[in-house]
């Protein structure tokens, strides 16, 4: 017997706003049977192939300190730096730049509520330096 991850849950102050922001980052969509609306305390989004879901739940507590779990993102197309520019234009805030002169490394960013996530190199970029 084993378990599987049903979905990833993110505690937040505004479930609707943060779910909409992450929809744009991940190209995810709402569940057709349970649309997200302003004021909803729980908002779920899912990958277009329905294999991954993220649930945003409003909590009264403010974020404190570093996340103990976070997303590591790779560009679906293009390069890490192109995707980094898109995410910053989308409202992500750079927190730490861990890129190295040889092109390896990653960048730590934060979403509008301060939740950290990392932008890694694309699979194509990794293959070139492997």
Written description of the protein model:
With 130 residues, this protein is α/β, with parallel strands linked by helices. Helix content is 23%, strand content 26%. The protein has three helices and eight strands. It has helices spanning 15-26, 80-90, 123-129, and strands at residues 8-12, 29-30, 42-46, 53-58, 71-73, 93-97, 107-110, 116-119. The strands form two sheets. A four-stranded mixed β-sheet has the order 1-4-3-2, with helices on one face. A hairpin with a 5-residue loop joins strand 7 and strand 8. The longest helix is centred in the N-terminal third of the chain and has 12 residues, at 15-26. It is globular. It starts with 7 loop residues before the first strand and ends with a helix. The model has no long low-confidence stretch (mean pLDDT 95).
């Amino acid at each position: 017997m084993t378990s599987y991850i049903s979905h990833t849950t993110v505690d937040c102050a505004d479930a609707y706003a943060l779910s909409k922001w992450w929809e744009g980052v991940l190209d995810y969509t709402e569940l057709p049977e349970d649309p997200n609306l302003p004021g909803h305390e729980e908002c779920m989004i899912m990958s277009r192939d329905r294999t991954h879901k993220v649930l945003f739940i409003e909590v009264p507590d403010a974020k404190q300190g570093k996340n103990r779990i976070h997303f590591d993102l790779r560009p679906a197309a293009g390069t890490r730096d192109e995707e980094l520019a898109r995410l910053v234009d989308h409202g992500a805030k750079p927190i730490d730049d861990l890129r190295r002169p040889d092109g390896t490394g990653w960048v730590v960013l934060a979403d509008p509520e301060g939740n950290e996530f990392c932008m890694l190199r694309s699979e194509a970029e990794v293959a070139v330096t492997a």
